[in-house]
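Backbone-to-sequence.
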């Protein structure tokens, strides 16, 4: 770089600074958006869990396993939910709905917890919640879902960000040339 004229050095420095600045800005946007996607997905699963908990509580109280299974089976229309397990208060499995591509034995690992719980494990999101009121817990609900919807949104986001990045690069190069002409 020692043999370059001062104008070319300024052009390269300007281009490098804009390249780094835009890279950092787009990375921050991607990080924030991925966090939003995960939060929205967890909220959607939470809404499903709340709906199931409210509808299944009577079946637990009256020990109606068939009725409970019919309620839980309705999540079959949600492609990303692969397993739902309902435990009675004594940690006995009350209802277990499982699609064929479910995560193996993950519900067992989380059933003994006594509070709300959520985690990501491999390609799955697991959410555990209580059935009933916190002062009168009658059971536990564990929902296991694939994170494919999040992955698809992240992939679209990354393609969009890369597209914006590569579209902006010629603009920044031209801007750096224009700035060095004014010097």
């Amino acid at each position: 770089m020692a043999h370059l004229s001062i104008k070319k050095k300024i052009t390269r420095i300007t281009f490098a600074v804009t390249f780094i600045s835009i890279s950092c800005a787009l990375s921050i946007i991607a990080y924030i958006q991925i966090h939003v996607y995960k939060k929205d997905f967890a909220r959607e699963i939470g809404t499903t869990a709340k709906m199931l908990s409210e509808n299944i509580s009577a079946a637990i109280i009256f020990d109606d396993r068939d009725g409970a299974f019919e309620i839980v089976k309705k999540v079959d229309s949600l492609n990303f939910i692969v397993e739902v397990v309902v435990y009675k208060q004594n940690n006995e499995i009350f209802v277990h709905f499982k699609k064929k591509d479910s995560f193996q034995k993950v519900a067992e690992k989380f059933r003994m917890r006594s509070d709300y719980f959520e985690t990501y494990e491999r390609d799955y999101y697991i959410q555990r919640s209580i059935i009933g009121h916190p002062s009168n817990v009658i059971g536990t609900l564990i929902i296991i879902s694939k994170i494919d919807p999040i992955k698809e949104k992240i992939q679209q986001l990354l393609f969009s960000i890369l597209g914006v990045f590569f579209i902006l690069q010629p603009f920044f190069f031209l801007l750096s040339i224009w700035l060095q002409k004014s010097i």
